[in-house]
Amino acid sequence: MESLSTEEKTAILHEMFPTIKIFDVSYCLKKSGLNFGKAVEELLNQAFLESENGDSEKSMHRNGIDAFAEHDARGRKRKGKRRRQGRRTSSTPAPSDIQSTNSSATSSRWDRAKEDVDFLAQRTYINTPTIRSIYHASGASIPSSIATLCSASTSAANPHLGSLDPETLAAHVAELALDFPTLPYSTVEALIRLTHPSTASAHELARAALTSPISRSEALLPQYAPR
User: Are 190 and 157 spatial neighbours (Cβ–Cβ below 8 Å)?
Assistant: First the structure.
C-alpha cells in the first residue's frame, strides 16, 4: 500500500469510507504523513464517532418518546392504584436482567465481528487492522468487505505475487470462474491475486462473496492488536 501514489491511496480510502467527504479523506492522509495504515485508523475512528453520534441522537429521541408515554400513563392512574407502584410483574425484567441481556448481545456482536475479521485475514496477506477497518467500513458484511478488497488493489500486499506467472494466473482464474460462474471476471482474478498460492482460500472467499450480506449497523470500536 505504501508504494501507491497519493491519489491512489486517497481513492482507495474513499472507497473504504464512502460516508466521509473526499476532501476530509485527503486531509487525513496528508495529516498522517501519507501513511496508509495511520490514515485508515484515523478515518475508522472518525467514522465510528459519526455513527455513534447518530445512534445517540436516535436513542435520545426514542427515550424522549418513552418518557412522555410513561409520564402520560402514570397521570391516568387513580390514587387507589398507587399501592401497585413499585411492584414488578413476572413479564417485566429486572434491571439486572436487562443489563445481562445487553451485555450478552454486545459480546455476541464482538465475537461475530472477530470471527469475520479473522476469516478474511487468515485467507489473505493483508494485516488484521486493515482488514478490520475495511470490514467495519463495509457495514460489518463479509461479502461487501470482499468486494472492497477486490476493488481496492489490496493484492499488492501479497508477498508471493512475484511467483504468479501469467499462465498459472490464467489457469487458476479459469478454474475459479468455472466453479463460480456468477462472479465477475475482475473479482475472480482479484481473489486469485489476493490469496496466491492458496487456491483453497480463493474458493472459500468466492463462496463467502456470494452469500447474502448481513449488515450489523452497530459500529464497533476496533481493538488493534498485532497479527
Answer: no
Rg (CA), the chain: 24
The pTM score is 0.55
CB 40 within 8 A of CB 15: no
Longest dimension (CA), the chain: 87
Closest CA to 219 of 105, 49, 41, 63: 49
The distance in angstroms from the start CA to the end CA of the chain is: 17
d(CA 17, CA 22): 9
Q: Which three cell numbers mark 49?
A: 464517532
Q: 140-165 burial, b for 16+ CB within 10 Å, e for fewer?
A: bbbbbbbbbbbebbbbbebeeeeebe
CA dist., res. 127 & res. 224, Å (int): 11
| Comparison of pLDDT for 77 and 113, the residue scoring more | 113
Taking the C-alpha atoms of residue 63 and residue 182, their distance in angstroms, rounded to an integer, is: 46
CA distance 130 to 126: 7
3 state DSSP class of 164? coil
Q: What does the angle CA 74 – CA 76 – CA 78 come to, to the nearest 5 degrees?
A: 95
Please say whether the beta carbons of 40 and 129 come within 8 A: yes
What are the pLDDT digits (tens) for 123-169?
Answer: 999 888 888 888 888 888 999 999 988 887 677 788 898 999 999 99
**Calculated CA dihedral for residues 192, 196, 197, 199, nearest 10 degrees:** -30
Find cell 427515550 and name the residue: 63
Separation of alpha carbons 171 and 154, rounded Å: 21
